[in-house]
């Protein structure tokens, strides 16, 4: 949660007061299909028409080697600041999906334990897992301190107290002292 390699980069990009607002796994199960191309958040100000500085980063850490067969992340490096249809990024006929077919994409292959840090607005999608095993990826979202999107993380007090100081700082705005909730309980 406070990776010694990732945090200096995240701190540099997001400045002081970084907070972690999301902690989960992205798992491509056997037989999964392509996701639609999407960004994880809509624009902050969709009508503004200008590209804003980075305010949220995603850290992905694969727990297994990621290869062509087990569902690698596919990214569109040039799409980070483009969002032609604003929040309608899941529709199969959405403008983002159409635009992505004409842009360069790359699949992200990496060994277990690697890290990927990306702007939360980066266009991406999951790809099919053609193996018999899950491809599990830890996902964390780090935001500037003024931006709280990402969910509500419940952390029991004894768990929070046992965390290293830097990790406590990252989760300081979350629901401390509450029983942990599973994602389906949110």
Automatic annotation (TrEMBL):
Family annotation (SUPFAM superfamilies): Clavaminate synthase-like (SSF51197)
Gene Ontology MF terms in the entry: 2-oxoglutarate-dependent dioxygenase activity
Keyword Glycosyltransferase: no
PANTHER family, sorted: PHYTANOYL-COA DIOXYGENASE FAMILY PROTEIN (AFU_ORTHOLOGUE AFUA_2G03330)
Gene3D superfamilies assigned: q2cbj1_9rhob like domain
Domain of life: Bacteria
Organism: Paenibacillus arenilitoris
Keyword entries, A-Z: Dioxygenase, Oxidoreductase
Name assigned to this protein: Phytanoyl-CoA dioxygenase family protein
Cytoplasm listed as a keyword: no
């Amino acid at each position: 949660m406070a990776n010694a390699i990732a945090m200096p980069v995240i701190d540099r990009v997001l400045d002081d007061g970084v907070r972690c607002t999301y902690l989960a796994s992205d798992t491509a199960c056997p037989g999964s299909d392509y996701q639609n191309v999407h960004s994880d958040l809509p624009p902050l100000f969709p009508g503004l028409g200008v590209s804003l500085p980075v305010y949220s980063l995603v850290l992905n850490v694969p727990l297994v080697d990621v290869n062509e067969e087990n569902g690698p992340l596919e990214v569109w490096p040039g799409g980070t600041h483009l969002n032609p249809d604003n929040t309608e990024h899941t529709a199969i006929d959405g403008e983002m999906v159409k635009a992505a077919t004409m842009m360069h994409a790359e699949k992200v292959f990496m060994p277990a334990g690697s890290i990927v840090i990306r702007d939360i607005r980066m266009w991406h999608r999951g790809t099919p897992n053609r193996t018999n095993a899950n491809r599990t990826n830890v996902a964390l979202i780090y935001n500037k301190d003024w931006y709280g999107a990402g969910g509500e993380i419940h952390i029991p007090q004894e768990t929070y107290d046992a965390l290293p100081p830097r990790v406590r700082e990252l989760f300081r705005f979350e629901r401390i002292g509450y029983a942990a909730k599973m994602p389906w309980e949110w």
